[in-house]
Amino acid sequence: MVRYVYDFHEGGRAMADLLGGKGANLAEMTRLGLPVPPGFIVTTEACRAFLVTGAEPDGMSEAVSRHLSALEAGAGRLLGQPDDPLLVSVRSGARFSMPGMMETVLDIGLTDESVLGLAKASGSERFAWDSYRRLVQMFGSTVMGVDAGLFERAMEMLKEIRGVSDDIHLETSDLAELVDVYKNLIHDETGQDFPQSPAEQLRRAILAVFQSWNGERARLYRRREHIADDLGTAVTVQRMVFGNLGADSGSGVAFTRDPATGRTGLYGDYLANAQGEDVVAGIRNTVPLTELEGLDPKSYGQLREHMLTLERHYRDLCDIEFTIERGTLWMLQTRVGKRTAEAAFAIAAELIDEGLISADEALRRVSGEELARLMFPRFDTSATGDALAHGLPASPGAAVGAAVFDSAEAVRRAAAGEKVVLVRQETTPDDLPGMVAAQAVLTSRGGKTSHAAVVARGMGKVCVCGAEELTVDTHARRFTTRGGTVVEEGAVISVDGSAGAVYPGAAPLVDSVVMRYLETGLRDERSEQAVAPVARALEQADGARRLEVRANADTPEDAARARRFGAQGIGLCRTEHMFLGARRKLVEEMILADTDVARDRALDALLPLQRQDFVGILEAMDGLPVTIRLLDPPLHEFLPDHTDLAVRIATTEAHGDLPDPHDTALLDAVNRMHEENPMLGLRGVRLGLVIPGLVAMQVRAIAEAVVERKRAGGSPEAEIMVPLVGAVEELRIEREVVERVLAEVSRESGISVQCPVGTMIELPRAALTAGRIAKEAEFFSFGTNDLTQTTWGFSRDDVEAAFFSAYLDKGIFATSPFETIDRDGVGRLVEIAVSEGRAARPGLKIGVCGEHGGDPESVHFFHSAGLDYVSCSPFRIPIARLEAGRAALTGTEASDSR
Ligand code: ADP
Ligand code: MG
Ligand code: MG
Question: What is the pTM of this model?
């Protein structure tokens, strides 16, 4: 018999798959002896079953009844008991935290009758009616599907009539009136009445939470965070405790460290006389948590102690919800908290020093994606001028964009390629599409734990919240600063999420100190706080990793930069750009040549230029391998555009002149060389086989560059890489040319030039016949860009814009296969090629030089596939180093804070 319900006493943190993060952590806190209101959890398994069949699985409702009875027995009251009702909350909570994405209903058990009992038992009529109106509102929107805005409008209207700004100033009779208004609203909208049976309320709330798993905003959030769609949510049913019982009650959120910087201390917000959802919603202004000390020193002291207990126990930053009911502290939630990239590195380093975690564990806790965020530029505050406003630095980074005032506008403009900043009083989960589309989020209300702040941090989006100096008018689509400056929709503003400031116009940017350190090794006192934890993590990663990290670099400058970033060589040196610019003329001559003599003349002119290119790169990478790829793209890419040529000839003729014979010859060549599918046409090794002089020239340039470097006392390590091989015969023929030229140059110079010759594996046929190809190749390098194109039959330039968003929406893939390696398809080809290649040639050196070489998830795959190195763009090198180190740690798990 499957078990669908667990009491808090029966669960624990390790059961998060089954009980959801929230439920599992409530159980864990219960086990630790912290004051948690009792309750039970309906499992994710029950949810999954419900979502498949549309009905509660067998035995679930009986189990819920049994656990409810136990809860009632413990409380000495029945759910909704008329004279003294037990009330419960029904809370959602999946394996991975999805803040605010699903539904929670508080105060279940109140009815027209039990509200009177609650008033009597608590001694507060106001509190009873406040709780009832909250229930009717939450139940009406979450369970019965009434637009939440209708309830809010009714509340706003009443506040206006009564001339009060805060719900806290409404009278008991007002709240009772609101309950009636809400009930009528529900009836008008749904044709049904708000249910007066507590048992029915509970049952329907549980099912509504199940259903909220498939709500639109939850689905959108999951797609963004790469959380699987089939996990389902657990449901926690918990005895209510009340923060809205008067001035000696309240609710708050707390962090054991600053989630923005990682610094230790007490961070959070507190709101007196409020239920938990008020704190995050930002409907009233919270006070900093430290002020609780003055309000309720006993609870404050206990809270500090519990926070310490939790941090020691979880060995990480914890994020906490609590409520104080008439001077008694209750813990309502904890989880390993989300944090900024800067805080992630800082906390990891500090926890090592505190002896709570090992250096390996610290490395697991940071990611390449976070490192990438720290490498972004920031605003140059010496040049920004006066800020329009200040707010809370909720999520760091610098962003510039046009101010927009609703989610739809943000989406619309972003789709048209414009950069936007979403400006709201506060955000709700309905703003999620706009937040995804925006560069930054700016709100005039809410604390560091408001919806805007939490979601933006999770996305790594810049966010300033609680900028109270701003009056945001979403209807008129503008905001006004305290000084009276008006910023209309479309005006460009700059948002500094690290400092919590907003500037007019596009503020100038400066490089990040982390980037400066990575590039130059420079450290100083001012930047040490940000730099030291990163340096430490990279050192740990470099010690742990098996994968080497090389760079894709085509110029001496890029090569030198890559080396400063820690590259251990060049994995891909493209030669095509060496044929552009002024050299284009020579390439044209080579293509147009109708005799061997004419072609050789053009190639001879190119040779010394190419040689100098290679000398520079080999010098910058002296002592490290440089893999040079022979010319790859189709030759017509070096010729002028067909239309340009045709127009030029036609205009000349229209003037009655004779067209330039060179132009006519070029146009002929362009027409002759036109291909329907250039990606699959005359390119790569095929070029070398058709125009052998071209390969010979390139190889000679490489070999002579090696000679020159050796004569200068250097240690050049050139490797020659043949692109787009599909059959071993192609490589064999090309290789003969390569070896002949290497032998010639060795003979001529008296210096032995030996370059390993290898091939790219970028066609499925190459991967499938890798065993044969390995006989002729001294190394393999996976060209995963082309391999992805040819495996899927995608032409990247054509498909990405055309239909990838539809594919992502339909869940055909979770990320573009051009960003993260497609393990099942392309990855399978990689695995085949590795195993058959190494079987044919033991010790075969294998790397990857596609863009995937710098993608964190792909790096983990390449590690486990047994590659020797990844090669990526210079700026991705630190990220690849970090991830290669993480990949080498055993037992890597997804972190809870995800
Ligand atoms: P979310 O996942 O959106 O944070 P929660 O389930 O945590 O939703 O609940 C929303 C708010 O209601 C939180 O502030 C929480 O602390 C509060 N809350 C939940 N259960 C209870 C309870 N039993 N008593 C008092 N407040 C509660
Ligand atoms: Mg919560
Ligand atoms: Mg390629």
Answer: 0.81
